[in-house]
Design a protein that fits this description.
The complex is a heterodimer. Chain A is an all-alpha fold. Chain A has helices spanning 2-20, 25-46, 71-102. Chain B is mostly helical. Chain B has one domain (5-435, 446-498). Chain B has 20 helices and 2 strands. Chain B is globular, with a radius of gyration of 22 Å. The relative contact order of chain B is 0.11. The chains are: A mainly alpha, B mainly alpha. The interface between A and B is large, with 37 and 43 residues.
């Protein structure tokens, strides 16, 4: 299970970085959301994953809290998912608008603001 | 005294401005009144903190390591004062200078949300909550940057958005990994647990991940390229907020997390940081000198000034930390003042390029004096705020025997003078150039009301220079409390003073 998750996170990060390094701005946003998902999984993975043991203490005889999964990381990634959803939707709108106004989606052509003339 | 109003007041104001989004007058007045109340509350909070010690608030009554803790200590209130004064000045400027279209697109509500985000960043005592406030700041700054939707802004916006999103993802990953390793996110609790495992290389990795995330926000070499390509694109009011406040968020979080929690890391890291800060200073100053756009000179100048602040963090002594804290406040005032000055000149002529500007000393000697004083302050002439902070930084460099840093500091200050002179001679001394047809180009008359915000920030900046002695003692006291963490930890975790720091967090 851990190995599967580690491979999954690594793949998501790798794919995301690959997409971010491409020249098209649309692919940058795809890359960012892939890395965002990788990051969310990483946070999920960081907090003690246990299968089939929800952290609901019905009775007091559970002595080892490490046999339960940590609910805090799950609430953290809920926040993170909402944030990354908002940010990606903003990014999508920005890129749509940018493609309309600039008439290109090539990063290498976006040099207007860097010229020092 | 409660801390939450510092976040709630601007949020409430943002809600009101959204309700009246068609009525420009109501929006303007609401945002002015809300920012004024925020400033007033900040000053009250400051008096309270300096009188009775730092304030702690447990949100939702959850105890310290479990729930979110808000803490207003000396560093937070100093930053809050800077924030609200700069916001007030920019608000007064935007009443006169911002066009109706921008305001009807929700400029005021987004600025108020940005203010809430900044206030939240400065008072939070929780790593994940810091991330959330970062995102609030990011989202509102994205909107402010691309609100007009013209070509330049969208280009600058894409560069800004991509790098800053990457930074916050890195921050999120680091926060998650730190929680996985240490089981806490509360900064006070975290600093206790980090102190127990300070030699663990995993901790060093996470600390550096956080440092990179903050360095991208603060525009430090080699991550600064987004700043000069985006800061000059938005309307001047927005540019002044960004230049004055947003890079300081990165430096503040670096002090709060990288220095307060993860200290001491191995010595080579700090040596590396000194080198990086020298490169940042140099590249910013060289970049500024070759530019010919008023705003782009100021944007590059921000990069070099951030290098000074980073140097103060890297030197690892109390004088240097105190210098960094004062430097953030000084730079917030001075840079937003300079940006507003550039806006006054640019609006009058209709261009920000040096070869189109000119003749402003004849037109308004007062503006010339204001600009010159701000420029002296940025350079570090005696009796201005820049002198106070640079002398403190120099002293700490001498204490640490960092001769290269001293050399770099002096050279960069000298070169700051060169590019400020370039602005002075091109924009103020030179006659207004002729346009393509050989006629004297038209320029609109200046509105005196626009000078008020510059005067406000200038007064605060001069106060740092004139009361440098008192303020440097305050800053050193603040810096001592950052390195000596006991007071903060005791306040947050409600420890008994006699027990000392034997407490080990939630699972005892």
């Amino acid at each position: 299970m851990e190995l599967l998750f580690a491979l999954m996170i690594g793949t998501l990060f790798g794919l995301g970085l690959y997409m971010m390094l491409r020249r098209s701005i649309v692919k940058i946003i795809i890359g960012i959301s892939l890395i965002g998902n990788g990051g969310n999984l990483l946070v999920f993975f960081a907090g003690n994953m246990v299968r089939g043991k929800p952290p609901i203490l019905k009775d007091d005889h559970i002595t080892n809290i490490y046999s339960l999964s940590d609910p805090l990381t799950q609430s953290l990634i809920l926040t993170a998912i909402v944030i990354s959803f908002g940010v990606s939707s903003f990014g999508a709108v920005l890129i749509n608008k940018a493609c309309e106004v600039l008439n290109t989606d090539d990063i290498d052509k976006l040099t207007d603001t860097d010229n020092s003339c | 005294m409660l801390i939450t109003p510092i976040i709630c007041i601007p949020l409430f104001g943002a809600a009101i401005t959204l309700l009246f989004y068609k009525d420009r007058e109501v929006q303007q007045w609401t945002s002015t009144v809300v920012i004024a109340i925020h400033t007033l509350y900040t000053f009250l909070l400051t008096l309270n903190v300096f009188g009775y010690g730092s304030l702690v608030e447990y949100v939702g009554n959850w105890d310290a390591p479990i729930g979110i803790t808000l803490i207003a200590d000396q560093l937070s209130v100093l930053m809050l004062i800077m924030t609200s004064v700069v916001m007030l000045a920019v608000n007064i400027y935007s009443r006169i200078a911002t066009d109706a279209k921008l305001e009807s697109q929700g400029y005021h509500s987004v600025v108020l949300i940005l203010l809430a985000g900044l206030s939240g960043t400065f008072v939070t005592g929780d790593l994940f909550n810091l991330y959330v406030w970062f995102e609030v700041i990011l989202m509102s700054s994205f909107v402010l940057l691309s609100i007009k939707g013209n070509k330049e802004q969208l280009e600058g916006g894409i560069k800004y958005v991509t790098l800053n999103l990457f930074a916050s993802l890195l921050f999120l990953c680091a926060a998650g990994l730190i929680y996985g390793l240490l089981g806490t996110l509360n900064l006070a609790d975290l600093s206790l647990k980090v102190a127990e495992n300070i030699s663990d290389p995993r901790i060093h990795t996470f600390a550096l991940m956080l440092w990179i995330a903050f360095a991208i926000k603060a525009a430090i070499f080699p991550f600064y390229s987004w700043l000069p390509s985006s800061y000059h694109t938005p309307p001047i009011a927005v540019g002044a907020i960004f230049a004055g406040l947003l890079t300081k968020v990165g430096i503040y979080s670096m002090i709060r997390v990288f220095i307060f929690v993860f200290n001491p890391l191995p010595a080579w890291i700090y040596t590396l940081l000194v080198i990086i800060s020298i490169i940042t200073m140099m590249s910013g100053v060289l970049g500024a000198y070759v530019q010919s756009d008023f705003r782009r000179i100021l944007a590059f100048s921000s990069v070099s000034q951030v290098g000074f602040m980073m140097l103060g963090i890297a030197l690892q002594n109390e004088w240097a930390m105190a210098a960094t804290i004062l430097f953030m406040i000084h730079h917030g005032f001075v840079k937003s003042g300079l940006f507003i000055t550039s806006g006054i000149c640019g609006k009058s002529v209709g261009s920000f390029y040096m070869n189109r500007l000119g003749g402003f000393l004849d037109k308004s000697p007062l503006l010339g004096i204001l600009f010159l004083t701000l420029a002296f302050s940025l350079i570090g002439v005696p009796f201005t705020s820049g002198f106070t902070v640079k002398i403190m930084l120099l002293k700490s460099c001498i204490m640490n025997k960092e001769w290269v840093a001293i050399f770099a500091l002096l050279v960069v200050s000298f070169m700051t003078m060169l590019y400020m002179l370039k602005i002075w001679s091109e924009v103020f001394w030179k006659k207004l150039p002729l346009d393509e047809d050989g006629k004297v180009s038209k320029s609109k008359p200046l509105e005196t009301g626009m000078f008020i915000p510059v005067v406000i920030v200038l007064i605060f900046s001069l106060m740092i220079g004139i009361f440098g002695n008192v303020l440097s003692e305050v800053a050193i006291d603040t810096a001592k409390k950052i390195y000596d963490r006991d007071e903060y930890i005791q306040k947050v975790l409600r420890l008994n003073l006699k027990e000392g720091l034997s407490y080990t967090g939630s699972e005892k």
